Structures are given as C-alpha cells and as structure tokens.
C-alpha cells in the first residue's frame, strides 16, 4: 500500500511540474525560439542607427552563380585603376571557381546559439592590452593583412579562423584557416588562382608572393558589390574607398550575431602604426581611406551597443 501511495504522489508531482511548465515557462521558451540567436542581444535586433546603415546583403561573398552588375563593376574598377573589361573580370572569376568551392561557407543564425566574432585589427594599441584570451574565446577570429600572432599571443591571441588578405598583403596560413580574398582589381583574382597552383608571375605596386600556403577548399572571395555597399551606405561615400579593416568589421556584422572589435585606432601621430612595428612614413595617416570617419562610426556603433569596442591604450 505504501508503494502505491508513493507512486501516486510521484505521478501527481510530475503532473504539477507539467502544468507549471505549460503555464509559466513555455511562453518564454516559445519567445526564445522566435529570436534569431541566443545572444543577450542579436544584431538583427539593432536600434535605429544600425537599421539606417544595415541592409541584409544576401551575398557578401562571390559564388559561381553570382553575376556582378556592370554598374558595380565600373565602380570597383576605379579603385586601383583597372583597365580591363567586365568580360575579362567574369572569365577570371570563372577560373577561380574551378579551383575553390562554388559557394562560401557562412553559418546561418540560429535561435539555439550565439555566433561570436573577434575582428582583430593591427593597431599599436594592442600592445600590453592582454586581450589575447578574450580574442581566442570567440567562435570566429578574423585577422587581416600581415597581422601576426607569434610572440604577441598575450595581447592579440593565437587563434585565427579567417584571414583577410589581398596579393600585396598575403601571408602563409595554417591549413584550418580560411583565406578571405579582398579583390581590388582583376590581378588580385588572377593571383589567388595561380598562387595556389602553378605560381603567380605578374607584378603589382608592391612585391607579391608567387605562391601562398593556404587551403584552397577554405578560400572565400569578397563580393565587389559589398565593397561599394560599405562605401556608399556605411561611410556615405567618404574617402576613395573603405579600408580593409572597416570592410572586415562590416562583414562581421553580416556573418556574426555578436561582434568584438580590437586593434583599431591611430597613434599620437595620427597614423595607424602596427603593434609589431612603427610606420616609417609619418605623413601616411590613413592614405586614401577616411580613417576618421571609419573610427567615428566604430565608436558610434559601440556607444549604441551594436558591437563591443576594445580600445587598448
């Protein structure tokens, strides 16, 4: 008899828990399931500043089936004085996708997870910052150009999932790191195919690596139309075209749920000196890019808690 009473009490308890769940908890579970991510705040839930600048750019990366418009091509070809035609561009792109995946791998948002990204610039303000562990803690760690980690792990971390580069800034990568090509001219597109196979023999305004160590199955190519979108919408056409760093930051806002930004900002001379070296040209500033406009936008996005900006010194 005591056993039956115990079983009855147990079943009654389960019934009570079920009723409590249905009445008090299930609405919250449903609400969470409707959110685009599991972060405290998802980027798509941004405020008016974010919504003014952000538009869901469906294809930030090139794919085998993407057809760049003539208008966007004509804008892009002026960035570094390209003289070849749209036909030459399309033929070069076609050769790329005979070597690398036809579509870039981008993980979609999910209510069940929070995709966190670290965008790591190369500013000298990373020195003695001790940001390394925080950077490595993020799901995606994006570095760029000749940014290095060896010997600087305490301040910049050691993990790299995506590395942004163009021919003049390319470095050898680990086999599990994605090479993300930012093309500014047809030569850049031609370079990535040959540097991963037979070797590149052309020339540019700076020396270019003939071969590069990178996993061809992880290569991604930024869409030139995305470059124009960043320039026209995010920077309101300030500067000749956006810097690699700022385009990387906006790209992160499109492929991540939560963005942490490190290593952006000028030194006391107004130059963006690197954490591993001082720039020799003290008059360089930010070159053809609107560094002040870009930095102000990053600071404003941080103020609105759209991203988390770590300023170092």
UniProtKB/TrEMBL annotation:
It holds the Pfam family Glyco_transf_29. GO terms for molecular function: beta-D-galactosyl-(1->3)-N-acetyl-beta-D-galactosaminide alpha-2,3- sialyltransferase; beta-galactoside (CMP) alpha-2,3-sialyltransferase activity. Substrate binds at residues 80, 122, 145, 205, 241, 245, 265, 274, 289. Disulfide bonds join 117-256. Pathway: Glycolipid biosynthesis; Protein modification; protein glycosylation. GO terms for biological process: lipid metabolic process; sialylation. It is a single-pass type II membrane protein. Gene3D superfamilies: Glycosyl transferase family 29 (3.90.1480.20). This is CMP-N-acetylneuraminate-beta-galactosamide-alpha-2,3-sialyltransferase 1.
């Amino acid at each position: 008899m005591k056993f039956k009473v115990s079983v009855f009490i147990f079943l009654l308890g389960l019934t009570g828990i079920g009723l409590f769940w249905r009445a008090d908890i299930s609405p919250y579970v449903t609400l969470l399931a409707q959110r685009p991510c599991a972060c405290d705040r998802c980027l798509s839930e941004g405020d008016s500043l974010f919504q003014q600048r952000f538009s869901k750019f469906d294809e930030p990366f090139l794919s085998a089936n993407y057809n760049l418009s003539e208008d966007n091509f004509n804008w892009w070809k002026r960035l570094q004085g390209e003289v070849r035609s749209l036909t030459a561009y399309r033929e070069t792109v076609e050769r790329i996708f005979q070597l690398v995946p036809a579509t870039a791998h981008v993980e979609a948002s999910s209510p069940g997870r929070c995709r966190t990204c670290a965008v790591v610039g190369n500013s000298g303000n990373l020195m003695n910052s001790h940001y390394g562990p925080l950077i490595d803690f993020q799901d995606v760690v994006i570095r760029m150009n000749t940014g290095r980690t060896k010997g600087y792990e305490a301040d910049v971390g050691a993990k790299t999932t995506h590395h942004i580069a163009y021919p003049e800034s390319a470095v050898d990568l680990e086999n599990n790191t994605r090479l993300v090509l930012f093309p500014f001219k047809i030569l850049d597109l031609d370079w990535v195919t040959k540097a991963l196979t037979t070797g590149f023999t052309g020339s540019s305004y700076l020396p270019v690596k003939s071969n590069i160590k990178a996993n061809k199955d992880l290569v991604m190519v930024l869409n030139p139309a995305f470059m124009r979108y960043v320039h026209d919408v995010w920077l309101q056409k300030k500067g000749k075209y956006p810097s690699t760093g700022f385009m990387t930051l906006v790209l992160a806002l499109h492929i991540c749920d939560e963005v942490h930004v490190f290593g952006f900002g000028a030194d006391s001379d107004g130059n963006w000196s690197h954490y591993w070296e001082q720039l020799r040209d003290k008059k360089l500033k930010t070159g053809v890019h609107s560094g002040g406009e870009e930095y102000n936008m990053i600071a404003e996005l941080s103020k609105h808690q759209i991203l988390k900006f770590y300023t170092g010194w």
